[in-house]
């Protein structure tokens, strides 16, 4: 763990020169408009009470402002503080769980929609590269065109095959409690760098996932 942490610090050191970053370059109004048009409707707002619907009906002037903002973020490798101020709401899990137990509720963090649009912008640039081809074929989580049904099918087929051959099937199920809250950020950045994400892209991802604040 110490090795990965040191490596990430080296990647992000401003005094070090990084290889050219082909993923991040100045965006244009057309790209921003395309991303906005793909956003879902009727989603909850954060502390600023701005929703995706506001962005969709903002018109060319708002698109221009967002374009200039995203270009400034790329050039300065910093995010506005408000981008990382989230509103946390709790949802009851149900299934007869006691209402008085904190563990009976799931915390949902609502970030500003402009912040989430910038995440979509970064993801769109990464998807246009060959990064996705470097992900293991057996990883189905957060992969395009992958879902739980396909994982269940693979597991079922493996079980049927073992039954036919009379062999054992060893399965390990793991549920990480509060996985996102306990995410090893440096480990994530280390793996992204090894997959080809570097330069401004890696720095923008780093500032986006660190030092976030939440209000309940």
Q: What's the quaternary structure here? A: single chain
**Which runs of at least 5 residues are low in confidence (pLDDT < 50)?**
none
Shape: globular
Strand content range: 5-15%
* Helix percentage: 40-55%
Quantity of strands, as a count: 3
Order of helices and strands: HHHHEEHHHHE
Main beta sheet strand tally, sense and closure: 3 strands, mixed
The residue-averaged pLDDT reads 84
Instruction: Count every helix, treating DSSP H or I runs of 4 or more residues as helices.
Output: 8
- Strands side by side in the biggest sheet: 2-1-3
Distance between the termini: 32 Å
Structural class: mainly alpha
State Rg: 21 Å
Briefly characterize the structure.
Helix content is about 45%, strand content about 10%. The two termini are about 30 Å apart. It contains eight helices and three strands, in the order H-H-H-H-E-E-H-H-H-H-E.
Summarize the SSE layout with pairings.
Blueprint: H1 2-12, H2 29-37, H3 52-56, H4 59-76, E1 85-92, E2 105-110, H5 113-127, H6 148-165, H7 185-194, H8 199-209, E3 213-215
Parallel strand pairs: 1-3
Antiparallel strand pairs: 1-2
Helix pairs in contact: 1-7, 7-8
């Amino acid at each position: 763990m110490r090795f990965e942490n040191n490596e990430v610090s080296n990647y992000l050191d401003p005094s070090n020169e990084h290889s050219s970053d082909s993923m991040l370059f100045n965006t244009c109004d057309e790209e921003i408009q395309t991303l906005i048009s793909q956003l879902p409707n009727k989603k909850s707002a954060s502390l600023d009470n701005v929703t995706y619907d506001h962005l969709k009906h903002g018109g060319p002037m708002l698109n221009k402002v967002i374009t200039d903002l995203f270009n400034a973020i790329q050039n300065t490798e910093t995010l506005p503080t408000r981008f990382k101020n989230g509103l946390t709401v709790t949802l009851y899990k149900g299934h007869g769980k006691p209402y008085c137990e904190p563990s009976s509720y799931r915390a949902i963090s609502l970030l500003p929609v402009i912040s989430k649009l910038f995440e979509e912008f970064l993801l769109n640039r990464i998807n246009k590269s060959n990064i996705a081809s470097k992900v293991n074929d057996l990883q189905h989580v957060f992969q395009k065109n992958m879902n739980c049904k396909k994982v269940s099918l693979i597991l079922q087929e493996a079980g049927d095959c073992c039954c036919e051959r009379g062999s054992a099937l060893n399965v390990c199920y793991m549920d990480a409690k509060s996985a996102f809250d306990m995410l090893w950020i440096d480990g994530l950045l280390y793996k992204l760098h090894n997959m080809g994400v570097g330069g401004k892209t890696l720095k923008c991802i780093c500032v986006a996932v660190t030092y976030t604040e939440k209000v309940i």
